[in-house]
Hints:
The chain is of the alpha/beta class. It has 2 domains: 3-29 and 198-274, no CATH class; 46-188 and 277-309, Vaccinia Virus protein VP39 (Rossmann fold, 3-Layer(aba) Sandwich), CATH 3.40.50. Helices cover 36% and strands 26% of the residues. The chain has helices at 3-14, 29-39, 46-56, 58-62, 83-92, 106-119, 132-135, 162-171, 190-197, 203-218, 278-288; strands spanning 19-20, 69-75, 96-103, 124-125, 128-129, 146-150, 179-185, 228-235, 240-247, 251-255, 258-262, 267-274, 292-297, 303-309. Strands 2, 3, 4, 5, 6, 7, 13 and 14 form an 8-stranded mixed β-sheet that branches. It has a 4-stranded mixed β-sheet with strand order 1-12-9-8. α5 links the parallel β2 (69-75) and β3. The protein is globular.
Amino acid sequence: MTTDTFEKDILKGLQSNPKRLFSKYFYDDKGSAIFQQIMHMPEYYLPGCETEILQHRVKDIINKLPQASYDVVELGAGDGSKTAFFLDAMIREKKKVTYIPLDISPEILSVNEEIMRQKLPGLCVKPIAGDYFETLKNISSREIPKIILFLGSNIGNFEGKKALDFIRFVKSFMGKGDYFMLGVDLKKHPRTILAAYDDPAGITKRFNINLLDRINRELNGNFNTADFDHYASYDPISGATKSYLISKVEQKVRVSGHTLTFSPYEAIHMEISQKYSLHDLDRIRENAGFKNDHHFTDSKSYFSISLFEV
């Protein structure tokens, strides 16, 4: 991500009405470290639920995959540590697998390769660095059946119809008999969801505030972070979880030579994390043009790994 793009996006967002920032910029080195703390919070149920499915429902998933060989293509693969459970089970079930992790960070793909080398020696790994909106085209010419993975509830970062548009975009690179494997956070008691996004220890608040620190550092900003508070909301009808930073006072902030004015209690929209019901997912699958779907949930039905077939 270039500094120019970062600057343009930040200024555009903060000069909009209402103001907004973009969650993709949360993950500088410090933000990534804070997110690792979030992943280990007792209130943040998502990674544990997804891992439970990959460990205990993985044979049920593989039983829906009829071919002997697959390319397993992972979007935003990260270090691949959870995916290793799925790949290991595929190999144990005598499937021939080529793993193709896609990620914007060449550094994390190096970590991914090393983890796979340690956990699954002999696995064929073909990483592709870059934005997967661009790099997905590299896999469309391969003739081996594909399973495209989009795990970690990352689909929840797409607002409204953009989730359906994204799934249709992914499907455009798929052929008959390919599968899209989607990790999805499900609708549940609102208090359970809110606790995951507004924890009592304030780690999520630090994660959001860190983006203001990054703006100060990289864009010559002068945010006083003590003048902002974190607020999260969840709408159980729409399933939208949203987080905001709230200006506690009337203030002016300088960013890259521009003066930005904040009213008392004015909000900056920071991120959305959309939650779905299984019925919602069935409707998305149908509207995206997939043939059928199967949902595999954890023991609490908090999370689903859903398999869409072309």
